[in-house]
Amino acid sequence: MSENTQRLVPTPGQTIGPFYGYALPYENGENLVDRSHPGSVRLHGTVYDGHGVPVPDSMLEIWQADENGKVSQETGSLIRDGYTFTGFGRVAVDNEGQYTFTTVNPGPTEAGKAPFICLTVFARGLLNRLFTRIYLPEDTEALANDPLLSGLSEDERATLVATREADGSLRFDVHLQGDGETVFLAYPGLE
Amino acid sequence: MAAENPEDAFEPLTAKGADDAADSQDQLNNEMAQITKQYEESGRTETQPRLDYAPYRSSILRHPTKDPRHTDPETIELYAPAFGERDVHKLESDLTIQDGGEPIGERIRITGRILDGDGRPVRNQLVEIWQANAAGRYIHKRDQHPAPIDPNFTGVGRCLTGDDGSYSFVTIKPGPYPWKNHQNAWRPAHVHFSLFGTDFTQRMITQMYFPGDPLFALDPIYQSIVDPKARERLVADYDHNVSEHEWLLGYKWDIVLSGSNRTWTEDDSNV
Questions:
Q1: Cα A188 from Cα B258, distance rounded (Å)
Q2: What does the similarity note say (chain B) (predicted)?
Q3: Global pTM?
Q4: Which of residues 175-234 of B touch A (CB under 8 A)?
């Protein structure tokens, strides 16, 4: 798939396994901004398996631009100072497969582009990580012109666009398999 | 606090019901051999694990049934989060000094380089590891393997890569441990590695193994990488030049992430 003349073969991934809980999640990992931040938004949802049962041992990471569409290259995601927006978050789902991030609505990185949040999914039982995108629902024209979304069926597209709830939060569920299976992504350079 | 919730969430290692862990290793071996045979006959070359690999029972309901959608990365996907010394203390790369006393086990160093698919070193980037102790036990509430906890070993480490993409950890060689996939199932000794690249699309988590482990052929997680050459990329080399006189044994393991999709300047790619 790659147009690169790739010289080295990538190392294979493996499952995160069951015992990451004491190693990877960290204090304030899920809080890209403080809840008191004026533009703070709750991004939340549930991870489901192929029977529609919540997956209690999954870890999610997000990576996104700030409200102005700027990509942060600031350090400090692991030890947050409460002021610097680093764009990265990590959360372990709870016993009911639910997660919450506190973040901001990303702006478009280029004018007219549909803003989205990158999401990476890890879980016990999932042999390699999965990539997907969480699109904001508001800019319908940009969504209609998005190169990825415009190539999807209505049902597939619906799995990638978050729902804006009455309280302003974004809801995005992940379905690893089965009804409403989330569209996961492959990028050039990795099969 | 986020770390606490999932610890309560894992299925207990005790059997859940009549069918749980009921299959024999022979049954597993037959299933794995069939998949190997089909792979060999296909003439294809795979480099990553199968997501749909039924011998790893927990994967059955947790793998997507549709192929991933190929897409070109957008701006945000061409960058990765930045980590620095603000995030990671230098001493976090030595897992043998974290809790006061000396942990029990075989002291080792694991070192190597992290490169992208074009051979560029991944610089100043975060590497996280976690592992069982020498007895095969994790510091984790739900690890019920009746092996001793080592009060002087958490099994968690972090470091930042150097300008040449190098990383180095001093730790204890982990032990193999039993799990509930099937009857008498044992994981080969391994260290979990969490890696970032220069692009978010290079994000990966994997496991490093030790050479010559007799459990390789029996382990459905290792065998989920159906290509023998590909799975050998997860096995470190013993390297006597890394070993230190009367102190520790050395292992070398280089990691290749997928190709970066950024446009690199000559200066950037000056390896």
A1: 9
A2: Belongs to the intradiol ring-cleavage dioxygenase family.
A3: 0.93
A4: 192, 194, 200-207, 221-222, 224-225, 230-231, 233-234
